[in-house]
Write a structure and sequence with these properties.
By secondary structure, the chain is α+β, with helices and mostly antiparallel strands. Helices cover 24% and strands 29% of the residues. The chain starts with 18 loop residues before the first strand and ends with a helix.
């Protein structure tokens, strides 16, 4: 890894960042966009077949399927760098009176946005996991929301689906490793029982704080929240008081 890199601060495009489109077998629409160096590795490992002519596009190996010997288990970051569509759940955790909202402070050990404020719950879908499974798993791991609390929330109609947010952008434009990000954020709100206090279970959160709408608006203006968290948290500001 180079000790220092001079990066030009300007808008980037898929062309000048040398992304290579990859299709799935006979489909014409690209399934992923891979940086040139990563594309070469995928070809070397026989996970991608190179184009066989000027009118064709590289495609994933036809034997690359779930459960096959060629199956590649991509972690979330690898999926992003390949340009695959990924999905994540984000939860606005509201206190019982709905006038305050919990925010989580990301652990300093996190690879991305360490120490920044985040939604009370935020995490990506694992392979083969449903949206509902991901929601409740992340609620437990990141906020200690037990099955008993979950039942209380559901019994009181405290779960609300807010919005599906589609993100397509080039991240890290001023770094030596930019990547094409395509992600769907599924935003929810939870009205929590009066005695509930979030408690992290997976080490990804260092602390929690509760804020009212005015304080949240100030934090968003100060860029104290991650970009994704700000998008989801701002939905609470738009909601009726």
């Amino acid at each position: 890894m180079p000790k220092s890199v001079a990066a030009e601060d300007r808008q980037a495009s898929l062309d000048d960042l040398a992304f290579q489109a990859i299709c799935w077998q006979a489909e014409l629409e690209p399934m992923a966009f891979a940086p040139a160096a990563l594309f070469a590795d995928l070809v070397d490992h026989e996970l991608v077949l190179p184009a066989d002519g000027p009118f064709s596009t590289p495609c994933f190996h036809p034997e690359l399927s779930p459960g096959s010997p060629r199956e590649a288990s991509f972690q979330a970051l690898t999926q992003q760098h390949l340009g695959f569509w990924t999905a994540a759940v984000h939860v606005n955790g509201l206190l019982a009176d709905k006038q305050m909202m919990w925010l989580a402070r990301r652990s300093m050990a996190k690879d991305s946005d360490p120490g920044m404020l985040d939604n009370m719950v935020a995490g990506g879908l694992a392979a083969g996991e449903s949206l509902e499974q991901c929601l409740w798993r992340e609620c437990w791991e990141e906020a200690g929301l037990s099955p008993e609390v979950r039942e209380t929330v559901l019994m009181n109609a405290g779960l609300k689906a807010l919005r599906r947010i589609h993100i397509q952008c080039i991240e890290g434009q001023t770094s030596p490793w930019p990547y094409f990000r395509r992600e769907r954020l599924f935003a929810f709100s939870l009205i929590l029982p009066p005695d509930f206090l979030p408690s992290n279970q997976d080490g990804e959160v260092s602390a929690y704080c509760s804020v009212d709408r005015e304080a949240l608006a100030q934090l968003i203006a100060q860029s104290a929240l991650t970009k994704d968290a700000a998008l989801v948290a701002s939905l609470w500001l738009q909601d009726e008081h």
